[in-house]
Amino acid sequence: MKNRPFERPLGFEQPTVAPQTLSSAAIGRMASKAALLEAAASPKPGLVCPDNRGAHTDMEYADFVASAKALEPYFCACADVGLEKPSPDTMLELLRPHAIKAEQTMLAATGGVNTHKGIVFSLGLICAAQGSLAACPIEDSMTSARLLASTAAGYVQGIVARELAPLRSNPPARKLTAGEQLYLEHQVTGIRGEAEQGFPLALGAFGLLRRELPRLGLELALPHVLLHLMAETTDTNLLNRGGWDGLRFVQKQAAAVLQQGGMGTAEGRRAMLHLCDACAERRLSPGGSADLLALTIFFHLALPYSAS
Full-prediction pTM beyond 0.85? Predict the structure, then answer.
C-alpha cells in the first residue's frame, strides 16, 4: 500500500437512536454490525482492511465479513442467556458451550481462518450483559456503557486467578494458548484482565468516539480511535508477533501519529499511512486493539446517540 492516496471507505451511516428495550435478535444484529464496521474501518495499521491485508497473508476482508455474519446467531444466543438473568457466577459456564460452537462456526465460514476468536469472548460477554439489562431504563450513554461493562465484568470475576495464575505452578499437559503463554512469560493478562476490570480501555475509547464524531464523522473517527487504543493497549497480538520491541514500536508510532493530528489532519493521515506500511513490513498486527474497537462500536450502536 505504499504511496497510495488516503480514501474514505463507504457505508458508514450514522445509527439512529437506540431503543431502550432491545430484543436478543436486535442485540445480535448490532454485535454483528459492530464486527463488520470494525473490519470495514480503514486505514488500520497491520490489520485487514477492505483494500489490503495489512500484516496478514492468511486472511482477507471477505473472511471478516463472512465471519461477522456467521457469528450473529451466537451473539443472539448470548443475549438470550442474559435475558434469563442467571446468577452472575454461573454466566461464564452457560456461555461457554455457545462460544465453542461459535468458534467452530467462524472457522467453517472462513475456511479455517481465525478472524474473530477474540470478540467471541469479549463481545459475547457484552451481549449477555446487554440482554440482562435490556429492560432497564437508559440514563446518559456513558453511564449506561459503564453499567453494561461492569455487568459483563461481574460474569468473569476471578478469571485471572482461576485460569491464568495456576499456570505458573501447575501448567497443563495440553499446548498453551498464545494468551496463556504470554501470561507465563510476561504476566500480561490480556482480554481476561480487561474484562475482569470492566473493559476500561473500551469505555475510554467509547467516550473518545462520541466526542470525535461531530468533528470527524464515523469513517474517520474509527481509525482515529484505533490509534488511541494502539497507543494505550498492552496488545497481546503485538507481543506474540513482535515481543516487547514490537509492542513498544507500535505504541510509540501510534502516539506520534496522534501528535500530528491523527485522522483529523492531512499530516496525521499521511503519517497513518506510513505507519500502515511499517506495520505490514514488520508483520505487526494490533489485533487486540481491533477487538476493543469492535466493543467500542457496539457501545455506540447500542446506546442512544444524537448528532445534533
Answer: yes
